[in-house]
Amino acid sequence: MQSLERAFVLLELMADAGGEVAISRLAAESGLALSTIHRLVRTLVARGYVRQLPSRRYVLGPRLIHLGESSSRMLATWAQPHLSWLVDEIGETANLALLDGDRVVYVAQVPSRHSMRMFTEVGRRVHLHCTGVGKVLLAQLPPDHVRRLLAQAGMPVRTERTVTDPDRLLAQLPSVAELGYAVDDGEQEAGVRCVAVPVPGGSAAGAISVSGPAGRLGMDAVSRVVPLLQTAAAALATELRQDPARPGT
Fold first, then answer.
1. Is the dihedral of CA 140, 142, 143, 144 positive or negative?
2. Which of 35, 51, 150, 162 is the most exposed, fewest CB within 10 Å of its CB?
3. 244 CB contacts (<8 Å, ≥6 apart)?
4. In 10 A of CB 94, how many CB atoms?
5. What's the pTM?
């Protein structure tokens, strides 16, 4: 069991590093002996979960893609009724997103029934700094980790409202963590507003959001929308905890 836990620690460190890492960094951040790391990594390489590059650095392997895709599909299935409930209650498109390295990936969506609605392709990876789901996930992380992710991904300008200064964004995150929600106020797409909350508990960093035209999803609606999002997120988290075969347990 100890070897299994240590192997997962190494995989998570590789993912946090952007998918590619040197043995020396794994040793520094895991606290494990080099001999232990070499032994575990050899096993992971043999199973296809890790690859060694010519530079002798290690990267996450292709077998993880199959596991990740299968997990995302199942998680999307479990999230669907909760997202549908949000659409019924709020009237706007509801999304589930997960932290994926230095980006956030949308894994499930239920569209609004309005003829004019927001649509984000499931599987799309977007930046953390300019999205509601991204900011609410960053608010759960230590500041040095946030800086590392922002440095890796960059902070490109998407609209005139996009925050591109890491210090300014970091100054906003304690308030996001305290309030329990984040708002993307036209920072990813002009005229689009998104409100997001984290899915509590579990090991998979996830967030639920609703998005719609700013004229329809006004800032005055946030106080009504946030409790509904938190109810859906808590219900999904409880469901995942109750089934030991599901992620996050």
1. negative
2. 35
3. none
4. 28
5. 0.71
| pLDDT score of 49 | 83
pLDDT digits (tens, 9 = 90+) for 83-104: 999 999 999 999 999 988 889 9
Rounded to whole angstroms, the Cα distance separating 151 from 169 reads: 13
Average pLDDT value for residue range 169-198: 96
Q: How long is the chain? A: 249
125-126 and 20-21 as β-strands: parallel, antiparallel, unpaired? unpaired
Rounded Cα gap, residues 213 and 185, in angstroms: 10
pLDDT over threshold 70, residue 70: no
pLDDT of 124 over the 50 cut: yes
Tokens standing for residue 17 = 């590093």
The answer to whether residues 9 and 17 touch, using CB atoms and an 8 Å cutoff, is no
Q: How far apart, in whole angstroms, are the C-alpha atoms of residue 31 and residue 113?
A: 51
